[in-house]
Amino acid sequence: MNPVILIPARMASTRLPGKPLADINGTPMIVEVWRRAVEADLGPVIVAAAEDEVAGAIEAAGGRAVKTRPDHPSGSDRIFEALNIADPGGRFDAVVNLQGDLPTLDPALPGRVLNLLAEDAVDIGTLACPITDAREETDPNVVKAVVAAAAGVAPGGQGRALYFSRARVPAGEGPLLHHIGLYAWRRASLARFVGLAPSPLERRERLEQLRALEDGMRIDVAFVDTVPLGVDTPADLDRARRMLGPGSGAGGR
Question: Among candidates 35, 15, 17, which has minimal Cα distance to 25?
């Protein structure tokens, strides 16, 4: 595979307006995410920016950004536009879609999700972590992944996704999985996906990945031991600042 990492970013966040440029100890958050992606060392890293100021922040840090339409309905649509602008000849055959609000991401995780595409039948790779906090089991903001995994869901393993839901699934005794929204796509699978209309289950659950499952696409899931901090609120932002601050071993790069 010849992969590229694409990071969609837009300023119009409802819970944290201007999120990509939120200050983390003197650095815009989108630049911290770009740094984690570069550290993953998988291939080129491009930010798919909806606004000029986001692109400018990345370019000032020495990175590459592609300006995209501001009205895309999803990050998948945004990265597909950016991919075709940056690589119209189709040189990149795999795409890692890294969310722009994961400034403390472990750089090893993009590689974990990309490795799932080593199986030819897999269209999309993603991640999940066993839930250890009982409150997350019934929290609709925590998406649960239902995965067929004969060997269990211990970190380091993997399985095939059967469903994703905001509900507590599956029923009965056993571990539940917190889905992590980091994806690896085959380029052809991404093109197929963005050409589909939103599906009934996608609309009902408000989960884009169900569109792929309803169309018969295969999603495999790698199991990891921690959920990356997603910055959605001012409290999350304060936590990221502490995690990347002096003495953390992660800041100042």
Answer: 35
Cα distance between residue 174 and residue 113, in whole Å: 24
Tell me the domains of the chain and their CATH numbers: 1-103+231-245 (3.90.550.10), 110-228 (3.90.550.10)
Q: Where are the alpha helices (DSSP H) in 177-244?
A: 187-194, 200-205, 209-214, 234-243
Using CA atoms in the order 226, 232, 238, 241, what is the torsion angle rounded to 10 degrees?
60
| Whole-prediction pTM | 0.94
CB 104 within 8 A of CB 233: no
**pLDDT at position 250 over 80:** no
Q: How confident is the model at residue 247 (pLDDT cuts 50, 70, 90)?
A: low
Q: How many CB atoms lie within 10 A of CB 88?
A: 8
Mean pLDDT within 77-100 = 96
Alpha helices in the chain (DSSP H): 29-40, 52-60, 75-86, 109-115, 134-137, 187-194, 200-205, 209-214, 234-243
Average pLDDT taken over every residue of the chain = 95
Please tell me the distance from the alpha carbon of residue 27 to that of residue 173, in angstroms, as a whole number: 45
